């Protein structure tokens, strides 16, 4: 049997396995967000604000520069630095926002804000640990959300009413 590498039999299978293993090793070495975020300098979370509009609530994270980020809906908010579950006031579910690489050097303002808004009940700077900064957004209900880079220094999370 002829393999894709022009070698037949057992030797061909071995070559394919070796090349496949090398390819997997290279793929694992590349960061998952390499195509969308090439900046490797550490960003600083400087503060956040919360606003309410007729159809959505908006959380704006102010940063020195927008780092890589993930926003994950969850029923339990766990502090990355300690592994302990935390709760935010008036919140039934959460959005767990992780910024990387990021820290809280230069952070100003309160570390937790409680609102009376329809969907975003509270926002808190939860932890900054080993290059990850975590922000928790407490929601009244599970709801759809969008994430938008507003500017080089602002990341917005909009949560629908």
Structure notes:
With about 160 residues, this protein is mainly beta. It contains one helix and twelve strands, in the order αββββββββββββ. The strands form three sheets. The chain has a five-stranded mixed β-sheet with strand order 7-1-2-12-11, with no helix packed on it. It has a five-stranded antiparallel β-sheet with strand order 3-6-10-9-8, with no helix packed on it. The chain is globular, with a radius of gyration of 21 Å. About 25% of the residues are buried.
Count of helix runs = 1
Order of helices and strands: HEEEEEEEEEEEE
- Radius of gyration, rounded? 21 Å
Secondary structure tally: strands: 12
Fraction in helix: 10-25%
- Biggest beta sheet summary: 5 strands, mixed
Please outline the helices and strands.
Layout: H1 9-29, E1 43-52, E2 56-63, E3 68-74, E4 77-78, E5 85-86, E6 93-100, E7 102-103, E8 112-114, E9 120-129, E10 132-139, E11 145-151, E12 154-160
Parallel strand pairs: 1-7
Antiparallel strand pairs: 1-2, 2-12, 3-6, 4-5, 6-10, 8-9, 9-10, 11-12
